Amino acid sequence: MIITFANQKGGVGKTTLAIAFANYLSLFTDKKVNVIDFDFQRSFYRQWSEDKELPGDYLYEVEKISEENIHLTQNEKILSQLKAGEEIFLFDTAGNIQNNYTQVLQYSDVVVIPFEYSNVTMMSTVLFLNLLQLIKVNAQLFFIKSNMRKDDHYELKSVMDDEFGKLGTVIGKPVFTRKCLLQINTKLLTYEQKMAVKETFDELIYHLWES
After folding, report:
1. pLDDT in tens, 34-83
2. Which residue, 43, 98, 109, 168, has fewest beta-carbon neighbours within 10 Å?
3. Count of Cβ atoms closer than 10 Å to residue 137 Cβ
4. What is the CATH classification number for the domain harbouring 34?
């Protein structure tokens, strides 16, 4: 199964949520997780590499995409095998649209799209959704409300929820801004980190495997 975290808009917490979800699946489900960092900033892979100095075992392996191995993610046979397998292959993709990962999107079973309620995010996400339609992505789309603040009022909430809901599933439970998530690593979830994402990820997992 291929799960891809993606959005053209940077700064919406995509890699943080990808790390948290990989950790959550590894710790609280029976899913075997493999991570492939397709962002040439290599934020996920860099965090994983730095975590080598922390106590404890890794929860999963992370492979970075480089010029030497990028051809593997453009091989339809390999992508078909990843898609058909029981293990989870989680791709963290770049914030900007790159032609070299369109095949990953096309072969994805699920695309998770973190977003914020702002004009800039709405326009950028709509452009990204148009790209998905243009390249005929048939994956299930799940939208996660990220970096929300409990006391803030979001004028665009109903508009964006309605528009995104026409194309996929808007996860009801948001991920609120939490300092603990800024300190996330790839070896564990603290109690605070777990509780910050639990309701959101439990809802997503329900849609993926239990509904």
Report:
1. 999 987 788 999 999 999 999 999 999 999 987 777 777 778 898 999 99
2. 98
3. 19
4. 3.40.50.300
